[in-house]
Write a structure and sequence with these properties.
10 helices; alpha/beta; about 280 residues; about 40% helix
């Protein structure tokens, strides 16, 4: 039986293969919907900190939150028309920087929740050490370089790779992750020329988010692509619906109908039979 991760063996530079479409999301109904829509893979990202948990960043997201939402997404996938779509879970900030026993425990929580692979940010010594340990456990690992939200405080600018030294750094990081054994890597917010060169250089799949069209696939956060958040989206986002406006109008209509007593109507209620009502009314 082929591995669900076989999808990541695709390379978009092969004209006969289509790019990988991955979506980052956090709940069962949305997971089922996106599987039915044809998504190739789902990511339970620590972006949940920004879009559903109300934090200002991803650093506040802990392993319990990722495990909780991973379980929900996995159950949604299983209820869909395509129950074999792979679910990858983020290792959140601090979950792969401690002792070996702590890393193993954190990874185990996500695997028991149903993830079939884990993603972590960076290509430094600690990240590479964690990758070695995870692979030794038999856990497939996806890397993540470029703009890495867990390290937001260290960046002078969001977009990476706009200078020759920075481009060289990103290439070296990608090669290090491939050498370490990653099956794929997310390239976030980097000059598209750099992402294209990385894609041409490595055999692992490259998944872009704000990294141009030459990657082997793309990932967007569900709330971004569905237009569920107010305000102007990031430059790398394309909104495929005006979800926020649609839901705002739905909530507004509900509130107005409750206040005007239009809801609930007779069609939203149940009645006793005449016989049972008379029996009830005549009981002493």
């Amino acid at each position: 039986m082929p591995s669900p991760l076989q999808i990541f063996s695709k390379k978009s530079r092969d004209a006969s293969l289509s790019p990988i479409a991955m979506i980052s999301l956090y709940d069962a109904p949305t997971a089922a919907l996106c599987c039915d829509a044809g998504a190739d893979a789902l990511l339970v990202g620590d972006s949940m900190g920004n879009v559903i948990l109300g934090y200002d960043n991803t650093v506040s997201v802990d392993i319990e939150a990722i495990a909780h939402h991973t379980g929900a997404v996995v159950r949604g996938v299983k209820s869909s028309s395509r129950p074999d779509v792979p679910v990858i879970a983020d290792l959140p900030f601090g979950s792969y920087h401690g002792s070996e026993s702590e890393i193993v425990a954190n990874a185990t929580k996500l695997l028991k929740a149903g993830a079939i692979a884990l993603k972590l940010e960076g290509a430094g010594e600690r990240a590479l050490r964690a990758i070695d340990l995870l692979l030794e456990m038999g856990v497939p690992v996806m890397g993540h370089i470029g703009f890495t939200p867990q390290s937001v405080l260290k960046f002078q600018t969001t977009v990476q790779g706009k200078t020759a030294p920075d481009a060289k750094r990103l290439m070296n990081e990608a090669l290090s992750l491939e050498k370490a054994g990653c099956f794929g890597v997310v390239l976030e917010a980097m000059a598209q020329e750099v992402a294209a060169q990385i894609t041409n250089k490595v055999q692992m799949a490259t998944i872009g988010i704000g990294a141009g069209s030459d990657c082997d696939g793309q990932v967007l956060v569900w709330h971004d692509l569905a237009g569920l958040l107010p305000g102007k989206p990031f430059r790398f986002v394309r909104q495929y619906a005006k979800g926020h406006q649609v839901l705002l109008e739905a909530a507004r209509s509900y509130v107005n109908e409750v206040k005007s007593k239009e809801f609930p109507s007779l069609e939203n209620a149940w009645n006793m039979t005449d016989e049972e009502r008379r029996r009830w009314e005549n009981e002493p």
